[in-house]
Specification:
146 residues; alpha+beta
Amino acid sequence: MLRFILAFTMLIGSLMLSACQTKMFDEYRKLRPGMEKDDVLEVMGSPQRTQRFHGKDRWTYVFYDDKLRQEKEVQFFEGNAVYVGDPWQPEVSAAQADANNEASNKVLEDEALRRFQETPAAYSTYESEVHGTDGVRYVPNFKPVQ
C-alpha cells in the first residue's frame, strides 16, 4: 500500500512538473518584439540567465518540452524586446574568424614588404631625375656680353 501511495505521488508530481514546463513553452510563444521588460517578466517570470552583449540585454529561458531541452532568448535594447527566439550564434566560429584575420594580415604584410622593397628603387630614380644624371641634358652655348 505504501508503495502504491509513493508511486501515485510521484506520478502526480511528474505530471504537474511536465505541465508547468509545457505551460512555460506556451507562455513563451506569447512574447513578441516591442514588449517591455516588465511585460516579459509578467509572462515568463525571472530568466535563468541574463547577459549584456553588444549593447543589448539578453535574457535566456530554459525549459523542457516533451523531454527535450529548449533554450530560448529575449534580447532587449533600451528596455524593449528586439529579438525573441533561439540563442544568438555567431556567423563563423572563433577559430574560423582567427584564420580569416591571419589571412588578411598576411596579405597586408606582403603588400607592405613589396612597397618597402620598391622604395629604394623609386628613391634612386627620383634622385637621378633631380640631379640630371638620368639622361643627356642640353646646355646652351652663351656668348659673353661685352
